[in-house]
Amino acid sequence: MTSITRKLEFDAGHRIPDHRSQCRNLHGHRYVLEITLEGEVIAAPGQSDNGMVMDFSEIKSIARKHIIDQWDHAFLVFKGDTAVVDFLESLENHKTVIIDSIPTAENLAHLAFDTLAPHYARQFGGSLRLSRIRLYETPNCWVDVLA
Ligand SMILES: Nc1nc2c(c(=O)[nH]1)N=C([C@H](O)[C@H](O)COP(=O)(O)OP(=O)(O)OP(=O)(O)O)CN2
Ligand SMILES: [Zn+2]
Q1: What are phi and psi for residue 6, nearest 5 degrees?
Q2: Which whole-number Å values give the CA distances from 89 to 23, 83, 93, 100, in the listed order?
Q3: If you read the UniProt record, what top EC class would you report for this enzyme, in one word (predicted)?
């Protein structure tokens, strides 16, 4: 079994409404998402992905389609944070993602894991699995969600 990791970055706004300090304010981060997959190295001479667990560009395409393109330059807001939801909905064409939980790094990492895992599992007849999502909220703060 071999483990490979693809890193992607995106910018998003959020706030943690219950937070006792600064994080209750509207603010943003350049998030770093690391996607780690486990699988066997493909042995298929002549095939584009020969010698790879999965083509890094393919890992990126799946993550972009299902997470990055939605979250990049969006404001990620808890559905129960009605003051902010109402404000964002008053802005024409604003990119807002309403989620079922408070947008902490932990909850966002779990959401990314649960969203992406089935898409990677579908590759190569189910022989590939998402083994870890690591999400950096800042260079000093990150979360790991493990399979
Ligand atoms: N367990 C968690 N704690 C905190 C979260 C979180 O998602 N999970 N989020 C925040 C804030 O949103 C913020 O992103 C982190 O702020 P801070 O602790 O200030 O992190 P910095 O890296 O910017 O701190 P430095 O002191 O500049 O290193 C808070 N807590
Ligand atoms: Zn924050």
Answers
A1: -115, 130
A2: 21, 10, 9, 17
A3: lyase
DSSP-derived secondary structure for 64-121: IIIIIHHHTTEEEEETT-HHHHHHHHTSTT--EEEESS---HHHHHHHHHHHHHHHHH
Judge: domain 2-146, CATH 2.60.40.2140: no
d(CA 147, CA 46): 32
Residue 101 one-letter amino acid: S
Identify which of 8, 41, 17 has the alpha carbon closest to the alpha carbon of residue 99: 17
Counting from 1 in the atom list of ligand 1, the atom nearest the Cα of 16 is 12
Predicted-complex ipTM score: 0.93
C-alpha 36, offset from chain centre: 12
- Whether 116 shows a pLDDT value over 90: the answer reads yes
Residue 107 above 90 pLDDT?
yes
* pLDDT attached to residue 123: 86
Ligand 1 atom 26 nearest Cα: 140
Looking at every residue in the chain, the average pLDDT score rounds to 97
Phi-psi region at 123: left, alpha or beta (left = phi > 0; alpha = psi -120 to 50):
beta
